[in-house]
Specification:
alpha+beta, Cytidine Deaminase, domain 2, 3 helices, globular
């Protein structure tokens, strides 16, 4: 019998209240909360906001954008990341905050597509992207030091043939 290898994944995120955030973190959270107001979500009625802080301390906002042709929409995280990538192509992304509606009873975990995009930026910049997952119903923020904490087996260019 061949050697069987075991892969395990364990993720533990600590929550903290809004009051426990430092001023820079609170500013990023506020920008994500504010970005929800620019969501175009007439179909799901689920407004999501995101904000990415760059190494130069610029904050770029994003909000989900839906379309009647459902696959044509885009999540708030990717809107913010792609906008930041276009406006500041060589700048490191330090942190990304994501929030869901105040009435949401689900935690604000990004979808797999957004996690993959985050992982791509981490690979490109060779450093982690801190995540702030905002749960407004309880005024809590769940933190992850890197996308790898939520998606440890991401695909990147090192997997492609040369």
């Amino acid at each position: 019998m061949k050697n069987i290898k075991k892969l395990e994944f364990h993720c533990e995120l600590q929550a903290q209240s809004y009051q426990d955030l430092n001023p820079s973190e609170w500013e990023l959270v506020q920008k994500a909360l504010e970005a929800r107001n620019r969501s175009h979500s007439p179909y799901s009625k689920f407004q999501v906001g995101a904000a990415v802080r760059l190494a130069n301390q610029t904050i770029i906002q994003g909000a989900n954008q839906e379309n009647a042709a459902y696959p044509s929409g885009l999540c708030a995280e990717r809107v913010a990341l792609f906008a930041a990538g276009v406006q500041f192509p060589n700048m490191t992304f330090e942190a990304l905050a994501v929030c869901v509606p105040d009435t949401s009873t689900n935690l604000p975990f990004p979808c797999g597509g957004c996690l993959q995009v985050m992982a791509e930026y981490e690979y490109k910049q060779q450093s982690g992207l801190e995540l702030f997952l905002i749960y407004p119903a309880e005024e809590l923020v769940f933190r992850a030091e890197s996308t790898r904490h939520l998606m440890p087996f991401s695909f990147n260019e090192s997997h492609l043939p040369e």
